[in-house]
Write a structure and sequence with these properties.
The protein is 34% helix and 23% strand. It has 18 helices and 27 strands. The longest helix is centred in the N-terminal third of the chain and has 36 residues. It is elongated and about 150 Å long.
């Protein structure tokens, strides 16, 4: 193959035929190319300037009269040699620019023909063209030319690859199909002054598929010029509105952003409807907050109990205008429920709000008995059922008073009712309903504590009665048959420790919230923020307020100072609108005084090395309880067998639900009692089952 001569190629290009006409038979017809042959005009100007410079020498050589006349003309031209030289140089410069534009036009025509198979009608390159790279161009296409998106992408890549070798500019190629036009523009690439964190976020989002067309911009700086916020825009999609998707993206973004120099942690705020989210820094939560002695919130209807991000105090609004009138606390045993309840009740006492409560375990709220503002703490299951019925009567009496006196419900005095470990209490009531003593069965049936409780959960708000509930799981059966409406009234919610997936869904309506709490920090949990959304918070620490020496002597000086500082000098006033609740509280106080004066408890016995025929096994009456619908296969539960609680293993669980609402209607447990015989036990939507204690106590007679 013969070698090509570059000089020859340039000369052919400058003075030869048009590119489309080369090596083409005269009889062959083909469309005319958009870029014609290049024709240079600079030699004329160069020759004129050279003639002007060498005019004297040429005039001296003249021989004939005609030549002499030409020599005089040349001599005259010699006086204009300066302007002619400038004209020649300018003409050469213009021709060089024209030649550069011609080469760029040829390249664009070839790229378009190769990528789209269309021959342009006209290619116009901006004059003067870029010396190192293309500045801009306009390509006129045949009328109705169709360019597919993939072909357009290939053409754009070819333009950028050929014209953007310098790396100082970027090219935008736009196809205006309605005008049969392609416009190519060049813009300088700004120096990349982004921080490493900014680059990491943009690179990861651009390389991934979670967002379409993501763009990261700095949203805010601190006083030292350090980036503390980013705005990420994207094209909205179905995923961007899903809470589960948002949670995963939040975790990924926080990991990409890394630890901030200030020690604060990253948080996100999503606006999916407008196609963006904001990353911002929030102050780290404190690891411990002692109950403040000063009134953090001067509003006497706000009961503060925790500190959130940026030292924000979180409170339970017990006012009549509150849309979150009742409070629900969920957490495992030892998770801090009791301390939160003490915090809320001591704050209520400081604000003149009385309270009463139920403690089926007899060890959680007993320290509040006798505290200013405490009407009574009930421990017995039957007495607890009577209290719930008395509260129901108080609610009806208050509503009647409002109706007769024509006053606003906000004028009624507030009263807080606390029910701790409600599932244990509910289990006890169900056991009493099956008791051997007919009188007890009749009494529990008449009191109907579960039905009265369901009414309270729905209707107590307007009567000035506020419910504070402590449970281990927020199951729907906790709220009776009207579970939907009742649970909605418990708008103030507190979850301590890590919830299960089902627990998170029932508590927060999101299976991801409250499942990654740092349990190494006591009092850490998730609570309802002022706007109703769940946020991380650090609960306040309120020590045991029991003045008994056995409890008081265990407190440090700092904790004693907290108790003294929280105790109000004046006890809240009790106002009863029903004789039922007043008589119950008076009788309960009398029983409590008698128990303190004459009460006795057996001393603990010692477990012998070997059991004898006289040994007896006693199962603790205060066993944990869960809703029947929460039982799983293989779980050991207690079933009633002629008045005795017998531990059995669940073989299968069948849950019947309402096809429209999904609420539990009935739970069927299959128990394998040995061999092929199986026992089927049915539970309704509100029933609970008791769990055996981890250990049993052996006593020797």
């Amino acid at each position: 193959m013969a070698q090509r001569d570059p000089l020859k190629d340039i000369l052919i290009e400058l003075f030869g035929p048009a590119p489309g006409a080369r090596n083409r038979p005269s009889s062959q017809s083909a469309p005319e190319p958009a870029v014609g042959a290049y024709r240079t005009l600079a030699p004329v100007a160069v020759a004129s300037a050279a003639l002007a410079f060498y005019a004297p020498q040429l005039a001296d050589t003249a021989l004939t009269d005609a030549v002499k006349q030409a020599g005089q003309l040349i001599t005259t031209l010699h006086s204009y040699r300066g302007p002619l030289a400038i004209l020649a140089v300018a003409w050469i410069a213009v021709d060089i620019l024209r030649w550069r534009g011609h080469r760029q036009s040829l390249a664009l025509e070839a790229q378009l023909r190769q990528t789209t198979r269309h021959l342009p009608v006209k290619v116009t390159v901006a004059f003067p063209p870029g010396i190192g790279a293309l500045r801009s161009a306009k390509i006129r296409l045949p009328r109705g030319a169709i360019i597919r998106p993939k072909e357009m992408d290939e053409f754009t890549t070819a333009v950028r690859g050929a014209a953007g070798r310098t790396g100082t500019h970027t090219y935008t190629v736009r196809h205006h199909a309605h005008r049969d036009l392609i416009l190519i523009t060049r813009t300088p690439i700004e120096p990349d002054t982004r921080s490493p964190r900014h680059k990491a976020l943009q690179t990861a989002l651009s390389a991934g598929t979670i967002f379409k067309e993501p763009a990261v911009t700095v949203n805010s700086y601190d006083d030292d010029g350090i980036e503390i916020g980013y705005k990420i825009t994207f094209t909205p999609s179905l995923n961007s509105g899903a809470r589960g998707f948002q949670t995963k993206v939040d975790e990924a973004l926080a990991a990409l952003a890394g630890d901030h120099e200030s020690g604060r942690t990253w948080a996100t705020e999503w606006i999916p409807s407008e196609g963006y989210l904001v990353m911002y820094l929030r102050a780290p939560l404190p690891t411990r907050v002692d109950h403040p002695l000063a009134l953090v919130d001067e509003n006497l209807r706000h009961l503060p109990y925790a500190t959130g991000a940026a030292n924000l105090s979180l409170y339970w609004d017990v006012s009549t205008k509150s849309n979150k009138p009742h409070c629900l606390i969920v957490g495992p045993t030892g998770g801090g429920k009791t301390s939160v309840i003490r915090t809320l009740l001591t704050e209520a006492s400081r604000r003149g709000i009385p309270f009463l409560g139920v403690d089926p375990k007899m060890i959680e709220l007993d320290g509040l008995e006798g505290y200013p503002g405490c009407a009574a703490i009930v421990y017995d299951a039957v007495r607890s059922a009577m209290l719930v019925r008395a509260l129901h009567a108080e609610m009806m009496a208050r509503n009647h008073y409002v109706h007769v006196k024509k006053i606003e419900p906000s004028q009624l005095p507030l009263l807080i009712a606390v029910l701790d470990e409600f599932f244990i209490l509910s289990g006890k009531w169900q056991r009493l309903a099956k008791d051997e003593d007919e009188e007890i069965r009749t009494q529990i049936k008449q009191l109907d504590p579960l039905g009265a409780w369901a009414d309270l959960a729905v209707l107590a708000r307007s009567a000035g009665i506020r419910l504070l509930l402590g449970v281990q799981r927020p199951d729907a059966s906790l709220f009776g048959s009207s579970s939907g409406n009742a649970r909605d009234n418990f708008g103030t919610r507190i979850s301590l420790g890590n919830l299960s997936q089902d627990g998170a869904l029932m508590m927060w309506g999101d299976a991801h919230v409250g499942r990654e709490v740092d349990t190494s920090i006591p009092g850490r949990g998730v609570v309802t923020a002022l706007d109703g959304s769940p946020v991380d918070a650090q609960m306040w620490w309120t020590p045991n307020v029991d003045p008994h020496p056995n409890k008081w002597n265990q407190l440090s000086k700092q904790e004693k100072a907290i108790v003294h500082g929280l105790t109000p000098t004046e006890s809240p006033t009790f106002e009863f609108f029903s004789t039922e609740l007043r008589e119950f509280v008076e009788s309960e106080r009398a029983l409590a005084r008698r128990a303190r004066e004459y009460g006795d408890a057996p001393e603990p016995s010692i477990l012998t090395d070997f059991a004898t025929d006289h040994d007896t096994v006693v199962v603790d009456d205060v066993a944990d309880a869960i809703p029947a619908a929460a039982v799983t296969e293989g779980m050991v539960i207690l079933l009633d067998d002629n008045g005795h609680q017998v531990p059995v293993t669940v073989d299968t669980v069948t849950i019947l639900r309402d096809k429209d609402t999904g609420d539990v209607l009935e739970t069927v447990l299959s128990i394998n009692t040995g061999g092929r015989v199986k026992t089927t036990v049915h539970f309704d939507a509100t029933e609970v089952v008791m769990l055996p204690e981890p250990d049993t106590v052996h006593t020797t007679v």
